């Protein structure tokens, strides 16, 4: 049995759309990191923290020790600086101004852990290029509310798609889970997709079909 330790609706959709059957628990953890920690270490640490908290909660609910708990954390990194979720619309504008006309990295830490003591944790990176953004379009975008619960103050699967000129690497990694990497890991743990038909569901990503891993514009 797979258990997703996350309250992110995006992570649940990504798994569901690929036909995984899973349970969900909350991953309530402090997202504080040591000052100056390298982003790739920090993002892995948070993924492990979430998976461990999820496992504790799952076992408390009566879950089996052999069940596999998945925790993840996504960060946007520009010039070695972590750009988290904006605390206010003004901060969202500031973050988007910084990303304007630049290339940044999106890191997702993924941790898989079971009560039997097995743990695998990795970090997957996607590189994203933004075109130059005007002050008015940033304001308009922030007013949609879309940036507020997202690392780096944007959602590539939503309105912010139009800001992106190229990506290198996994698109789903930017949205919260690197599905190509994760499918391989889950297979190794004996967890397979069970309902491939549900992959046909339109997830709003069709404009990006064939776009991942390349460098062309959407
Ligand atoms: C950059 C980017 C981030 N995001 C989202 C993915 C993550 O949900 C969120 C980063 O926050 P996270 O702290 O990784 O996750 P979360 O708080 O949403 O959920 P939980 O900790 O319970 O698992 O930003 C997008 O949806 N689209 C994007 O383009």
Give the gist of this structure.
By secondary structure, this protein is of the alpha/beta class.
Account of the protein in words:
With 218 residues, the protein is of the alpha/beta class. It has a single domain (2-200), classed as Alpha-Beta Complex (Maf protein). The protein has 6 helices and 7 strands. It has helices at residues 9-17, 39-60, 89-99, 135-143, 171-175, 179-188, and strands at residues 2-5, 22-25, 68-78, 81-83, 103-114, 119-130, 164-168. Strands 1, 2, 3, 4, 5, 6 and 7 form a 7-stranded mixed sheet that branches. A hairpin with a 4-residue loop joins strand 5 and strand 6. The longest helix is centred in the N-terminal third of the chain and has 22 residues, at 39-60. The radius of gyration is 17 Å and the shape is elongated. The structure holds thymidine-5'-triphosphate (TTP). Thymidine-5'-triphosphate (TTP) binds at residues 6-8, 10-11, 27, 50, 72-74, 76, 106, 150-152, 154-157, 174-176.
């Amino acid at each position: 049995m797979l258990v997703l330790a996350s309250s992110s609706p995006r992570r649940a959709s990504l798994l569901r759309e690929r036909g995984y059957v899973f349970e969900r628990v909350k991953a309530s953890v402090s997202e504080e990191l040591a000052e100056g920690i390298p982003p790739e270490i920090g993002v892995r640490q948070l993924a492990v923290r979430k998976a461990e908290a999820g496992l504790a909660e799952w076992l408390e609910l009566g879950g089996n020790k052999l069940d596999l708990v998945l925790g993840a954390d996504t960060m946007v990194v520009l010039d070695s600086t972590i750009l988290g979720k904006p605390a206010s619309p003004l901060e969202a504008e500031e973050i988007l101004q910084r990303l304007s006309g630049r290339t940044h990295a999106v890191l997702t830490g993924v941790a898989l852990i079971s009560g039997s003591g097995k743990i695998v944790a990795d970090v997957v990176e996607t590189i994203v290029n933004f075109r130059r953004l005007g002050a008015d379009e940033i304001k308009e975008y922030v007013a949609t509310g879309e940036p507020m619960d997202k690392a780096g103050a944007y959602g590539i699967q939503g309105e912010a798609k139009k800001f992106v000129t190229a990506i290198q690497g996994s698109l789903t990694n930017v949205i919260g889970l690197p599905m190509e990497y994760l499918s391989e890991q889950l297979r190794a743990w004996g967890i397979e997709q069970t309902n491939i038909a549900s992959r046909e569901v339109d997830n709003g990503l069709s404009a990006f079909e064939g776009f991942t891993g390349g460098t062309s514009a959407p």
